[in-house]
Design goal:
With 307 residues, the chain is an alpha/beta fold. The chain contains 13 helices and twelve strands. It has a seven-stranded mixed β-sheet with strand order 4-3-2-5-8-12-11, sandwiched between helices. The protein has a three-stranded antiparallel β-sheet with strand order 1-6-7. A two-stranded antiparallel sheet has the order 9-10. The radius of gyration is 19 Å and the shape is globular. The protein binds S-adenosylmethionine (SAM). S-adenosylmethionine binds at residues 7, 10, 17, 20, 22, 24-25, 67-70, 90-93, 96, 115-116, 133-135, 138-139.
C-alpha cells in the first residue's frame, strides 16, 4: 500500500500545463479544432457558466472560490459573463497562480498561493460557490489496498489504513472485488471539507473511473472505466481517475442534492459526417487524434453539481 501525491511536483516543478492539455485549455483558442467539434463552439468556461445558470442562481452569486484554476481561463470567462463575481483563486503552484493573475488582470480577484488543505475553514465558509475543475485526480490517492486492509484497518497500526477503513465503514462504500484497489482519499477529503463548510453550491469535475459511453460510441473510443481509480502518468507526476460514486455518497451524507453527468451534457458534440469519420476510422492524422481524444474526454470526464 502506498500514497500517491502530486503536491511537490505542483509546488516546485510545474511551469505550464502544456504537458497535460485539459479540456478547458483545449477550448481556449477560438480557432481550436476541438471547438469545431461542438454544437455550440464556445470556450469551456462559457459553456459551463451557461450550464450552471440552468441549475443555480448564478446572477445572485458574488463570492466564488476556484481551487486549482490552471491558466485562469475558466474564471476569466465567468467574470466576463458575470462582472459582479468576486473570485478567490487558490493554487498550490506559484507558476500557475502567476498565469491566473495575468488572465484575470484588472478584475477584483483575491489570489492565494497554497494547498487547499491549508486554506482556513473560517474563510471557506464565506463562499457561495466552489469550483474544482479537472483537478481532483491531483489530490492524494491510496494505491494497492486489499479487502483485508479494510476489514482489519483499526488493528493495522497504520494511520492511512485506519482512515480508509473508517471512510468505508462511515459511508458504507462497497469493498471492490479485486486483489488490490485504489482509493481517492484526497478527493473524498475535499468533498467532506466543502460540504462541512456548508458552501451552498459546489461544482467539481475530473476524469472518471466510472464513465459510461453511449452505445453508439462504445467500441470506437478507448474508455477504461472499471470503477477502480487508474493511474494517468504525466510529465513529472502521476494522477488518478476518480470514483465519482464515492464523492456522490459523501455529498448526500452531508445533505446535498447531487446532479451528476459528463462534460458532453454541456459540451454537446456536433455529429457531422467528418466527425463520424474521425471517430470510426481511427485515422492517425494528428488533428484527428486530437479530436478523437477530445471526444473521449467529453464522455470520460464527469462532474458533480452539489446544492
Ligand atoms: C490539471 S490542472 C487543472 C487546471 C484547470 N482547472 C483546468 O481545468 O484547466 C490542476 C490544477 O490544480 C492545482 N492543484 C493541484 N493540487 C492542489 C492543491 N492541493 N491545492 C491547490 N491547488 C492544487 C494545480 O496547481 C493546477 O492549477
Amino acid at each position: 500500500m502506498y500514497l500517491n501525491c502530486t503536491d511537490e511536483y505542483h509546488r516546485n516543478e510545474l511551469e505550464t500545463l502544456g504537458w497535460e492539455l485539459t479540456v478547458c485549455n483545449s477550448l481556449a483558442d477560438e480557432k481550436s479544432s476541438c471547438r469545431r467539434a461542438l454544437k455550440n463552439p464556445v470556450s469551456f468556461g462559457e459553456a459551463l457558466y451557461r450550464f450552471l445558470e440552468t441549475l443555480l442562481p448564478m446572477k445572485g452569486i458574488v463570492r466564488v472560490i476556484e481551487v486549482g484554476g490552471g491558466h485562469g481561463n475558466l474564471m476569466a470567462d465567468f467574470v466576463r459573463l458575470n462582472p459582479e463575481l468576486k473570485p478567490a483563486m487558490i493554487d498550490i503552484s506559484p507558476a500557475l497562480l502567476a498565469l491566473q493573475r495575468e488572465a484575470l488582470q484588472g478584475r477584483d480577484v483575491e489570489f492565494v498561493h497554497g494547498d487547499f488543505y491549508d486554506f482556513p475553514d473560517e474563510k471557506l465558509i464565506s463562499y457561495e460557490l466552489a469550483i474544482f475543475n479537472e483537478n481532483l485526480g491531483d489530490f492524494p490517492a491510496v494505491c494497492d489496498i486489499t479487502a483485508s486492509d479494510i476489514a482489519h484497518g483499526a488493528t493495522r497500526g497504520n494511520r492511512i489504513i485506519e482512515e480508509i477503513a473508517r471512510d468505508f465503514a462511515k459511508y458504507n462504500f462497497p469493498v471492490p472485488d479485486l486483489p488490490y484497489f485504489n482509493y481517492n482519499i484526497g478527493a473524498v477529503r475535499v468533498i467532506e471539507r466543502l460540504c462541512a463548510a456548508g458552501i451552498p453550491y459546489i461544482y467539481v469535475s475530473e476524469h472518471s473511473c466510472e464513465a459510461r459511453l453511449p452505445d453508439e460510441l462504445a467500441g470506437f473510443l478507448n474508455v477504461c472505466a472499471d470503477g477502480n481509480p487508474r493511474a494517468i502518468r504525466l510529465y513529472g507526476h502521476v494522477e488518478y481517475t476518480v470514483r465519482f460514486s464515492h464523492l456522490e455518497t459523501v455529498a448526500r451524507h452531508y445533505g446535498y442534492a447531487v446532479r451528476r453527468g459528463c462534460f458532453a451534457d454541456f459540451l454537446p458534440v456536433k455529429w457531422t459526417d467528418e466527425l463520424h469519420f474521425i471517430v470510426h476510422s481511427k485515422s492517425a492524422k494528428e488533428e484527428h487524434e486530437i479530436i478523437r481524444q477530445f471526444i473521449e474526454d467529453l464522455y470520460t470526464y464527469e462532474y458533480l453539481v452539489l446544492t
